[in-house]
Amino acid sequence: MSIDIAGYSALSERDAAAALTHVARVRDLAGAAATAHGGRIFNTAGDGLMLEFASASDALAASIRLCERERDARLRFGVHMAEVSQTEDGDLLGHGVNVAARLQAEATAGAILISEIVRENVAPELAQKFAPRGRVKLAKMRTTMAVFAFAPSGETTKARVAAKPILAVLAFDTPARDRATRTFADGVSEEILYAVSRMPGLKVIGSTSSFAFRGRDKTRAAKTLNATHILDGSVRRMEDRIRVAAHLAEAESGVVLWSERYDRDIADAFALEEEIAHEVAKALEVTLAEARRARAPKLTAALSDSYFEAREFIRTGAVVCVQSAAAALDRIVREAPDFARAWAALATAKLEVLRLTRADRAKLVEEAREAAERALGIDPSMGEAYAVLAALEGEYLGRWREREALIERALEVEPNHPLLLFRHGQFLVATGRVEDGYAQQGRAYELDPLDPMFAAFHGYNVWARREKADGKAILEDAAKRYPDNVFVWFMRLNTAALDGDFVAANDLRADGVRLVPGLADSASYKAGERMQQLMIAPSPEAFMQLGQDFATMADEEPASALDLAVALAVLGFTGPALAIFGDALDNVDAWRAGALEAARPHIGYESALLFIDQTKPLRMDPASPISANASASRGTGARPMFGLIVSARRPTISARRARTNGYSSPSSPSSSPSSSSAPADSIGGEARNASQPVSSSSAVSAAESWCAARLRFNSANALAA
């Protein structure tokens, strides 16, 4: 048994006399406890004591007695059982003595830490007082061992809930201050996070959230992120060599489960990251993946720097940065053609360039596809590559069933990837499975709660489906962290407008002009202003003019067509909404060509809008291809798929255009989002009698009746922003 006084050095500096008094009293109590249980003190040094007992039960009984009786000095105990040898003066030597001393060093103040062999060799009633504390790698020892703890307060003896570990990988520290070394250290940390996240049975917090904690803030990471374990360390770079120190700790107790230091050539950096991931998995007793992994590439220092910088550029989302990243990754894969992660990154960069620019689109589609397929040819468990192929299928080739299979495959190989979960959620919402989609987006937010895009969508989802106050709180917290994020701004504007908070909506719309260049001149922005004016001062004449004006605006700016159609659908005017929507589907390229990409997410955004609560009147109209296809799907038991919806028979363009001259009856107030009870993904469920085209006079009468019954109504002015 090894004992010392926690905080003894600090106590000695403050009050040397009190420190000596503590030591003398502890030695007396330890001697009495040893005598009572057939043991002896065989070594003393400073505030430390080493004791020997004839049995494990005697050692534990003595340690518990001493731990409970000594209140002034907070003691730490380490107990181990092993063979030792005795010197002539009665001192003991051997590996067992070293283990006891290092267990004591890992114990928290006021607690006893014992090895598994000790617990196995005592009576059950005594063993039950010691709770499992995981596996620990003791200082200067290569192997890990299971340990158990006891404290008089009972805090460490509570039974632990069997739960999947939640790991936060923090950005490793670096003593260097230059940007290049910082980028390199962050890149190494991110690759370690990526390697660990592919281990099945382990939840890993996303990099946006975990990398937000640096320096002194790291102490808050576990509590803020609800992590059970923390992986942290440091990176030093010496020309073409790196030194990485890593340690894995239990968040609640601070017990270090594993630690190691590595000195390697930079060429072995990626192999090192996989090695660290496997050590973490073993320490957490997580089953290692059986999937075939690609051999880690060997890169020169220059290529490593270029790769990490390219990854950083992609994360910025700026057009120039993403283009630079694509060019750099092109060079990397030419020199390192077996580097699967670089091929996947190149595919992602090409896809982002495709989304953010208007030139060479067909060429970019092929280049992104080729890079993704090269990545999968090297490493079939590369979820990022599957995600790129899925995006190409849905957005640019229209094969939505193929896209679903690819997204699901991506999640099979990387179930912890927050962005993949989010994209799957977008896909589910886009095909009418709203609740399932919101749940996936909620999982993405849970794994990366500080990511602004995940927070924006999850906050809106909570506002729409669970509790408005909770949803707004999530959005406001995200706005404090990321005041210039477009997604957060967009969802705040959306909720304010739909709640009828026109003051907040006006302020947010003005802020959007600052965030999104060109927004104020767009048809969507102008339509939003019109909608708000109409809400503040509704009149039948204004309603009658709105559909024709919006149809003209959609012709002038096809990219705003769906926003305008959704706005009309919110008002219940499904005829004009269907006309605009139908024209947009007939000319998808024009619909996308002028879109303000910075203002909207890309995966499934357009079709997802059709399944929000506010567009239910549009889905229920018999003339709607969505309604017709949904009915067919229900009859066959098939899931509604938007790939079929867009190919369903629709009225001719001339017939749809004719409908803009007459309104469908506006929906009753009960169809507004604040009082709607039918879920948006029950695409035909309890369908109301669908609206039909009516004469102009009938539309005026309906509008007058509605205005009289409801002066304040909801609008999609934010969706039209």
The spatial strand order of the largest sheet comes to: 2-3-1-4-7-9-8
Q: What is the strand tally?
A: 14
Mean pLDDT score, rounded?
Answer: 75
Give the N-terminus to C-terminus distance in angstroms. 70 Å
Cα-based radius of gyration, to the nearest Å: 32 Å
Your description of this structure?
The protein is 54% helix and 11% strand. It is an alpha+beta fold and 721 residues long. Helix 24 (540-556) packs parallel to helix 26. It is elongated. Mean pLDDT is 75; it is low at 154-162, 287-292, 596-604 and 625-721.
Q: Strands, helices and their partners?
A:
Blueprint: E1 2-5, H1 8-14, H2 16-36, E2 40-45, E3 48-52, H3 56-69, E4 75-79, E5 85-86, E6 92-93, H4 95-106, E7 111-115, H5 116-120, H6 124-127, E8 131-137, E9 144-150, E10 166-169, H7 179-197, E11 203-204, H8 207-210, H9 221-225, E12 229-238, E13 241-250, E14 256-265, H10 269-283, H11 301-316, H12 319-335, H13 340-356, H14 361-378, H15 383-397, H16 400-413, H17 418-430, H18 434-447, H19 452-465, H20 468-481, H21 486-498, H22 502-515, H23 523-536, H24 540-556, H25 561-571, H26 574-586, H27 588-593, H28 605-608, H29 616-620, H30 625-636, H31 642-645, H32 653-659, H33 696-709
Helix pairs in contact: 1-2, 2-3, 7-10, 7-11, 11-12, 11-13, 12-13, 13-14, 13-15, 14-15, 15-16, 16-17, 17-18, 18-19, 19-20, 19-21, 20-21, 21-22, 23-24, 23-25, 24-25, 24-26, 24-33, 25-26, 26-32
Care to give the gist of this entry?
With 721 residues, the protein is an alpha+beta fold.
Tag the structure with descriptive keywords:
seven-stranded mixed sheet, alpha+beta, five-stranded mixed sheet, 721 residues, single chain
